[in-house]
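Exercise: predict the fold of this chain.
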Amino acid sequence: MDKTAWLLLALAVVVLVVGMWSIFSETLWVLVSCLETMLYPTISTPE
């Protein structure tokens, strides 16, 4: 494989990792917010 193919492959991997991280980090924070609401019902957490 030449340099261009390696560069495009690395770029695709970076875009995929950043996309997955942004999706799952939002899901993770929503789940943490729901858990906090169940544990501490008097404190309202922003979502």
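Check your answer against the key: The chain is about 80% helix and 0% strand.
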